[in-house]
């Protein structure tokens, strides 16, 4: 008989309940804030800037994530309006959260006088660590899991720890711990971003694009395992195309169930594919057209204070800068870095 091993409610004080889901999401946000503050110090950006960005960005992300999810599940929620705001039970979409966070972030960053791409690059690892930790909220809630599997497949073939295997026993049936797959994928991506952001070849905007490429590749393949995907009805050729791209996974995994009444295309899977194509194209086109001259390591300028701070110095500079946040040409950049302080 099925028994919930983990109580989704962490604390109950009278009518007030604090859910593990919210605590875990909060820990993910704080971990992301820490990473952004530490990297921001290299460019002389005050910690308060990122704290305010978090305070504005998190509510925006949650609201947008919920709206995104409810929009695709309106057939259910129109008859259960009392559940519209029950985000502690899950039902928020990561892509919706990204949309909300990026809209809020763009407005906030530009109002503070910084280049959006420069700050977004700094925050890219924060997004990954937030998602890496946040997925464990799904683990506690027993949600966002994949299709049915045998216990032996999880324990003996994948060698997943028993406490995870036991929690994936949902009403007597074991399921793919897709939360774990995505969390581990994000961890590997985090290491990759840490490595490439110290390389000279990286241009402004490309760390953000790399984040989207890495996360979306993993999401494309993991999403097909899930049984709770947001769906829409699309052309059969598109479904066949997505299935063909996913087909290498069939050697080990089977796709999760899709309710034909809701659709035949997984929204997140299609969006992940489009993001990979867009970001790869953006990197290539920006370099070929000369829009990616500024490097990640270059100084960052605040257009409202006209002060520039490099990644290795906290001394303001009066060197003229262009709108990308770097000096107007490579010679001036080299002159700036070589000049004794």
Automatic annotation (TrEMBL):
Keywords for this protein: Cell membrane, Membrane, Transferase, Transmembrane, Transmembrane helix
Biased composition range(s): Basic and acidic residues: 329-341
Organism: Cohnella soli
Compositionally biased spans, kind Low complexity: 307-318
Top-rank EC class of the record's enzyme: transferase
Record InterPro entries: Lgt
Role of this protein: Catalyzes the transfer of the diacylglyceryl group from phosphatidylglycerol to the sulfhydryl group of the N-terminal cysteine of a prolipoprotein, the first step in the formation of mature lipoproteins.
Gene: lgt
PROSITE patterns registered for this protein in UniProt: LGT
Molecular function terms, GO-annotated: phosphatidylglycerol-prolipoprotein diacylglyceryl transferase activity
Subcellular location(s) per record: Cell membrane
Region: Disordered, residue numbers: 307-341
Family: Belongs to the Lgt family.
Topology in membrane: Multi-pass membrane protein
PANTHER family referenced in this protein's UniProt entry, alphabetically: PHOSPHATIDYLGLYCEROL--PROLIPOPROTEIN DIACYLGLYCERYL TRANSFERASE, PROLIPOPROTEIN DIACYLGLYCERYL TRANSFERASE
Protein name as catalogued: Phosphatidylglycerol--prolipoprotein diacylglyceryl transferase
Annotated metabolic or biological route of this protein: Protein modification; lipoprotein biosynthesis (diacylglyceryl transfer)
EC nos: 2.5.1.145
Transmembrane segments annotated in the record for this chain: 20-37, 49-72, 92-109, 116-134, 178-196, 208-225, 267-285
Annotated residues for binding of a 1,2-diacyl-sn-glycero-3-phospho-(1'-sn-glycerol): 135
């Amino acid at each position: 008989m099925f028994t919930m091993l983990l109580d989704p409610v962490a604390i109950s004080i009278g009518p007030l309940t604090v859910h593990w889901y919210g605590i875990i999401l909060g820990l993910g946000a704080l971990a992301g804030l820490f990473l952004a503050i530490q990297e921001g110090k290299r460019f002389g950006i005050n910690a308060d800037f990122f704290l305010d960005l978090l305070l504005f960005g998190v509510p925006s992300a949650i609201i947008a994530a919920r709206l995104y999810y409810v929009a695709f599940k309106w057939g259910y929620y129109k008859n259960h309006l009392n559940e519209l705001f029950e985000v502690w039970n899950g039902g928020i979409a990561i892509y919706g959260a990204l949309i909300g966070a990026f809209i809020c972030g763009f407005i906030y960053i530009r109002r503070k006088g910084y280049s959006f791409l420069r700050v977004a690059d700094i925050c890219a690892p924060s997004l990954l660590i937030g998602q890496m930790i946040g997925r464990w909220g799904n683990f506690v809630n027993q949600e966002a899991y994949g299709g049915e599997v045998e216990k032996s497949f999880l324990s003996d073939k994948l060698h997943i720890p028993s406490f995870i295997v036991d929690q994936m026993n949902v009403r007597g049936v074991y399921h793919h711990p897709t939360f774990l797959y995505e969390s581990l994928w994000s961890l590997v991506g985090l290491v990759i971003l840490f490595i490439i952001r110290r390389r000279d070849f990286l241009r402004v905007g490309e760390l953000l694009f790399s984040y989207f490429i890495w996360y979306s590749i993993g999401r494309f393949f993991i999403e097909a395992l899930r049984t709770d995907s947001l769906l829409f009805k699309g052309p059969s050729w598109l479904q066949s195309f997505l299935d063909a791209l996913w087909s290498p996974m069939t050697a080990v995994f089977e796709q999760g169930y899709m309710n034909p009444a809701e659709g035949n295309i997984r929204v997140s899977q299609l969006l992940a594919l489009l993001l990979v194509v867009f970001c790869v194209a953006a990197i290539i086109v920006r370099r070929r057209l000369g829009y990616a001259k500024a490097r990640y390591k270059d100084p960052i300028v605040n257009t409202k204070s006209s002060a520039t701070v490099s990644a290795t110095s906290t001394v303001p500079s009066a060197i003229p800068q262009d709108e990308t946040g770097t000096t107007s040409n490579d010679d001036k950049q080299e002159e700036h870095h070589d000049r004794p302080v």
